[in-house]
Amino acid sequence: MKRLVIKIGSNILTCKDNGLDLERIQSISEDIAAVKHAGHEVVVVSSGAVAAGMQKLDLKEKPKDIVLKQAAAAIGQSSLMWAYEKCFNVHGGKVAQVLLTRDDFADRKRYINSRNTLITLLSYGITPIINENDTVATDEIRFGDNDHLASLVAGLIDAERFIILSDVEGLFSDNPATNPEARLIKVVEEITPEIEEKAGGAGSAVGTGGMLSKLLAAKRAMRHGITVNIVNGRRNAPVSSLLSGVSLGTEFRPREGRLSSKKGWIAYACRTKGSIVVDDGAAKALTQKGRSLLPSGIVALTGSFEAGDAVYCIDTGGNRIAKGLTNYSSAEIEKIKGKKTSEIESILGYRYSDEVIHRDNLALL
């Protein structure tokens, strides 16, 4: 059995008038039903609520005002879930609506609660339909696009595969719309800066994510050891075809090893409250030797944070090399930076830990 996260973009689910394409949703539901019948667990991350709301509000362009976007999402979300429920019910399937915000991932307790809910739904054979909670999201907590959200969900539930159903065939060597010689890149082992440069700009009038957002989502999922596929969602039965061995779109193959759920949360979900600049010796110890961060290797820090908050570790060249949960506040670190571990207690009058950031609470970037 494989646990899959399938992200479906707005362009796949909507018609030219921005309303929901019920025939397409029915086709995708049939495909997912076949995959589930084969024994796989499926979580769907679906766009489309705002687009559905746009039709009801008679809007021709996607709202830029977040308040209007929230209103469109509130109106459209019920239509989106009604469509999924109706289409899945044809095959005896059940769906559950799950709306998430950035804070549901940033807070450790809510992160674990979200995971437990999704795993429980899967254990009952129910397909969770996840969307960003646009109705309450603000600029500070919104994901920005469902590619990002889907990659976090894939890490959250320890998925084996993350499939992005898009309106393009996959990643090309150049823009196929302007260069007829552009070729489809079938396999990517590592997403390099050169590959990111090949990605285009923003999405369409109804979507937010372009190819770059998909590459960044794939990059996050690969760190979790998850295989990622970008395929054309308008093909017939794209998911079941892919799982049966048909070569479709672009496949991103993960590195060896897999981030633990906790380190994945640290690296990609929790919010940072500041940064710690480390010297060259500490940077080498963190990145090459798997060591913890000691106060002696700290040069400077920025931001105001408390013990338990997430901070970036930055080398002297200004590069973010790691992210971790600190054992001391910024005020305490200001007093002990550059000092030996044995001096912590004499300086502060107490010692929580020998390490400012323990390696178990640190994820390399």
Give an account of the 3D structure.
This protein is an alpha/beta fold. The chain folds into two domains: 3-263, Acetylglutamate kinase-like (Carbamate kinase, 3-Layer(aba) Sandwich); 271-364, Roll (Archaeosine Trna-guanine Transglycosylase, Chain: A, domain 4). 38% of the residues lie in helices and 18% in strands. It has 14 helices and 13 strands. The chain has an eight-stranded mixed sheet, sandwiched between helices. Helix 3 (49-57) packs across helix 4 and helix 7 (146-156) packs parallel to helix 9 (211-223). The longest helix is centred in the first third of the chain and has 24 residues, at 66-89. The radius of gyration is 22 Å and the shape is elongated. The two termini are 31 Å apart.
Strand content bin: 15-25%
Largest sheet: 8 strands, mixed
Number of strands: 13
Shape: elongated
Which architecture of the largest domain does the CATH hierarchy give at level 2? 3-Layer(aba) Sandwich
**Biggest sheet strand line-up:** 3-4-2-1-5-7-8-6
The CATH topology name of the largest domain reads Carbamate kinase
Count of the domains: 2
CATH class of the largest domain: Alpha Beta
Structural class: alpha/beta
- Secondary-structure element series: EHHEHHEHHEHEEHHEHEHEHEEEHHE
Q: Give the termini distance in whole angstroms.
A: 31 Å
Could you tell me the radius of gyration in angstroms?
A: 22 Å
Q: Low-confidence runs (pLDDT<50, min 5 residues)?
A: 201-209
The helicity comes to: 25-40%
Q: What would CATH call the homologous superfamily of the largest domain? A: Acetylglutamate kinase-like
The number of helical elements comes to 14
Mean pLDDT: 88
